[in-house]
Structure formats: C-alpha cells, structure tokens
Amino acid sequence: MGSRVLAAVDQHTAAAMDLVNQMERLGLGIEVVEVSGEPSTVFVEEAASLARTRRCDLAVGIGGGSAMDTAKAVAALLSNDDLFEYLETVGKDRPLARPAASWIAVPTTAGTGAEATSNAVLFSPEQQVKVSLRHPSMLASLALIDPELTLPLPPGITASSGLDALTQLIEPFVCSKPNAIIDTLCRDGIKRIGFSLPRAFHDGSDLKARENMMLAALFSGMALANAKLGAVHGIAGPLGGMTAVPHGVACARLLPIVMEINLDAMRSRTHDSSTLTRYQEVAVLLSGNPNAPVDDGYAFVRRLVTGMCIPKLSRFGLTPELFPSLIEKAKKANSMKGNPVELTNGELRRILEMEEEY
Among 9, 139, 163, 294, which is disulfide-ready with 280 (CB 3.0 to 4.6 Å)? Predict the structure, then answer.
C-alpha cells in the first residue's frame, strides 16, 4: 500500500509504539504524530503538512477513534490540499477532488467503530464545533481488529468506549429509517455488550469479553455508517464542541435518559407502535430475559452507567446556562433527524436536567 508511513498513534497506548517499531524493522519509513484528545482541524493540517513534506504515501491509525480519525483525515489530505474546501458546516462541504490515499486502521479500544466509517470527526477551535470530513474513499483500506490490543485498557475507558458502541447500536436500531441488514448487526452487537461489558470492566484480562466488545464496536461503526442515529448523538455532537467532555462519556450519560424520554414521548402522542416493539427488543437483548418489559432497557443501561461510575457532564463544564444554546444546536444536528420521535424544546431540556439528577 505504501513505503513511507504517517502513523497517528494514541499516546496512552503502549501497543502503538510496539507496532511502529515492528514497521521500522520491516524497512518502512515512519513519521509518528501522537494524538492527545480529539483531533482539531489545526492538528490535522499540521500532521498532513508533515506527511507531505516527508513524502508519506500511507497513513496508519493506531489507538482509539481520535487516532483513527487523524489517520483518515491525513489520508484524504495527502491527495487533496485545502481541508476547508471539503469540511462540512465550517467549510465548503465539497466532495474530495481526488480519492484519499490508503490508510490502515488498528483500533485499540472497543467503542467508536471508526475503523468501519468513511468520515473523520474534527474539532474546529475557531467555531467551537465538531464537524466531519467525509468521502467514500476515506473508508479504511485495511482494518486490523485484534481484541488483545484492548487488554491493557483501564476500566474507565473500557466503560465509556463500550457505552459509545452501545449507543451506536441502539440508535440505528430504533431510528426513523431502520435498515434490515443493519438490524441484524445491531441485534448481535447489543446482546454481546449486555453480556460482556460488565465482565470486561471488572476483569480487563477476560479475552472472550474483550473479543465480544471488539466485534460489537465494529458492528456499531457499520451501523452508524449505514443507518441513522438519534438524539443522543444530536446532543453529544454540539456538546463536545462547547465543553471538554469526551464523546464516549457524553453518549454514556445521555443514552438511558434519551431512551426514557423517547418512550414517554411516543406514548404521549400517536406513534407507530413498531418502534416501541424495537425498544422492547433492546430490553430483551440487553437483559437476556425474553419477558423483559420495554422500560427494562433504559433501566439496564442506567445501571451500567452508575455501576461503572461514568462521570456527570457537569464535571466537564456543562451548566444550566448552556442549555438553551445546546438545545438550539442539537435541534439542527443531522443526527437528530434520525430520532424515532421529534422531541420538543421542553423534552430536550428535561434530558439535560435528568442527566444531572442521577
């Protein structure tokens, strides 16, 4: 695929440098950029400039979603010069003029599913928003899914990344435009997470649990790439631009509340009962109880969130003063269009209030 590599590596992942060293021993030229936190437009432009200067022809992302999104964006910019020509929202949102260069995904967390998507999520510091660079050619040329790489993950990252994957499975499954093929992946992934996430959290050396989580995360990437999302991502996206909250934490804290509010909203107004049936199926898949009532779904997720000590959003700067602006931005988010029911301003505010209450 190439002979000179730009490697975007998660600075907290020991396995990343082991793999870099292996590539060097094979005779590949390597330029390394360490990724700390979610990548910004500035950081990606600097990494792409380095890659061009050193004549890199291949990108590799080793780490969580941030490392993979960095590699994905650099691959696009190896073939195309001006990032803002192609960025959505803050740029001209044009399709890439030329296909992205090859890139290889090596996920070391089980959460974002970035190895299976064709967009890179970047933070724009000037506008304080998260935006996507997307094109079909940005799909990874090769994704190496190895559960052993997740064995060293600490419990906190295991929890937040795992609940991120769960969100990316539940939202496409109950969305306004479900996809029969993706439904199959969602059912399998939701069941695996319900069984395996608590085990991986309490015993990080449980390789079978890690394997189930890695596969579920891969399925979640396929799901969000081929179906719609919902209010969790509709809120989490702009929230990530307004505060320092990690995306996985935001999704984890919001997921059980959005599930509950969506159910209340559908019950209170005329609505297609098929979505309620899907929510009940989520409860069955998570709990393993074939007779689980529909409300057991969000109750199960809430127990996961509290039992794994996911921190409240207020710890990262979310205050009631930000609610009006966040609600307005969330209503305009593309992800919100996939929510199974249109939520009112009051219902969106209630989601944010309830998050602080539990």
Answer: 294
Same domain, 10 and 138: yes
Strand partners for 122 = 131
| C-alpha torsion angle, residues 279, 167, 111, 150 (rounded to 10) | -50
Among 196, 171, 186, 170, CA closest to 218: 186
Q: Are residues 222 and 279 in the same domain?
A: yes
Claim to verify: residue 113 and residue 178 sit in the same structural domain: no
Q: In this model, does residue 271 exceed pLDDT 70?
A: no
Q: Give the range of the structural domain holding residue 68, as residue numbers without chain letter.
A: 4-145
Q: Decide: helix, strand or coil at residue 4.
A: strand
> Does pLDDT of 157 surpass 90?
yes
| Secondary structure (3-state) at 161 | helix
Q: Locate 233 and state its tokens.
A: 């991502």
Q: What is the distance between the terminal CA atoms of the chain, rounded to a whole angstrom? A: 49
Chain segment 283-316, per-residue pLDDT in tens:
999 999 999 999 999 999 999 999 999 999 999 9
Is-contact 83 138, C-beta < 8 A? no
Q: Let me know whether 161 and 297 are in one domain.
A: yes
Task: State the Cα–Cα distance between residues 38 and 164, nearest whole angstrom.
Answer: 15
Beta strands in the chain (DSSP E): 4-10, 29-35, 58-63, 103-107, 119-124, 129-134, 142-143
CA distance 170 to 190: 7
Which letter, b or e, does each residue of 272-311 get, where b requires 16 or more Cβ atoms within 10 Å of its Cβ? eeebbebbbbbbbbbbeeeebebebbbbbbbebbeebebe
% pLDDT > 70, the chain: 99
The 10 Å Cβ neighbour count of residue 262 is 26
Please count the structural domains in the chain: 2
CATH number at residue 78: 3.40.50.1970
Say if residue 217 is in the same domain as residue 272: yes
Of 145, 173, 197, the residue at which a domain comes to its end is 145
